[in-house]
Structure formats: structure tokens, C-alpha cells
Amino acid sequence: MDDRVVLAIKLNNAASNDPCELCGRRTDPEVGPELFLDGSWALVCYECGEKYAPELMGLLLDYRRSRSFEEFLDNPS
Ligand SMILES: [Zn+2]
Question: For residues 31 and 15, what is the distance between their CA atoms, to the nearest angstrom?
Fold first, then answer.
């Protein structure tokens, strides 16, 4: 596989269920920051994100974690 895969975090404002552009696996995108192939709107799954752009993946997961923590603070069950 081409090792010059460049990924980007972009705001996904139309949650579709497109398969991962790189491996064809199902993705489960959320509206908000998601991983895409740089220069396109082709979704990339988190496994491929981990493989090709672990730093971006880390940012995305940190964002998810802090957001769910805020939701937890808003709605303690
Ligand atoms: Zn993938």
C-alpha cells in the first residue's frame, strides 16, 4: 500500500456510513471532528488512523474523552 497516506481531521457535518477509504471496513462516524483522507471527504476508520496518523488519532480520542466527560458532568447518573 502507498505509504504516503496523509490524513486530516475535519469537521464532519453530514454523518454518512461510508466505508473506510483505506481498508473498506464499516465506519461509524459522528457529526463533529472525524478522520478523512487529506484533500477529500473520504472517511478513514480509527484502525487506519492509528496506523497512518497516530498523533491525529490521539487528538481525536482526547477530544472524544473530554467531550464525554463534559456530558457526564452535565448529566451525572
Ligand atoms: Zn480503515
Answer: 5
